[in-house]
Write a structure and sequence with these properties.
Radius of gyration: 17 Å
Structural class: alpha+beta
Number of strands: 7
Shape: globular
Low-confidence stretches: none
Strand order of the largest sheet: 4-5-6-7
Mean pLDDT: 89
Largest sheet: 4 strands, mixed
Oligomer: single chain
Number of helices: 6
Amino acid sequence: MADDKIDVVALQELNVHRQNSQTVEAHKRTAQTLGYKLFLATTAEQKQTGGTAILVSQKLLSEGCTVPTVIRHPDGNSIRVRLNHPTVGMLHLWSIYAPADGTKRRNFFLKIAAHVTPQCVLMGDFNCVEDTALDTRRSANSPYENTGADMITYIRILNKLVDQMRTQL
C-alpha cells in the first residue's frame, strides 16, 4: 500500500453514539480539515464503548479512487470500506474493534470470517494476539485472555494476508 501511496487511517474506540449528531459532524469537519474523508460506524448505545472509523485521503479521492460501498457493524465494532483504486483495483479496508469478552470476540471473528477475502486490509484492536510471547508485554501474573486468536490466524492463512507489523519486527 505504501508503494501505491494509499493513505488511509483506521480508528477504534471512538465512543461516538449514532444519535450524537454534533460529535459526528465535528469529527467529519476535523477529518476534512486534515485532508481526509471520514467513514464512521457509531455505537448503538450511549454508554457503549467502541465505534470504528476509516479515514481516506482526500488526495486519493481526487486522483480517481472511489468508495462505492460502506458496511457498518450495527454496534460499531467494525466498518468496511470498499476502495476502488485506479491501478490497484478493489480493496476492502476494515477497521475492527473486537469485543473484550472472549466468547463474544470469537463469535465476532466467526461472523466476519465469511466476508474477508484476499483483497482485504484488516486494521484494528483485535483484543487478542497471534503470539502472546512476542506480542504482549505485561507485568500481570494472570494468563493473557486470548480467545479468538485462533480465528485471526485462520482468517490470515485462509486469505493469504500478511501481518505488516510482524514483517517489520
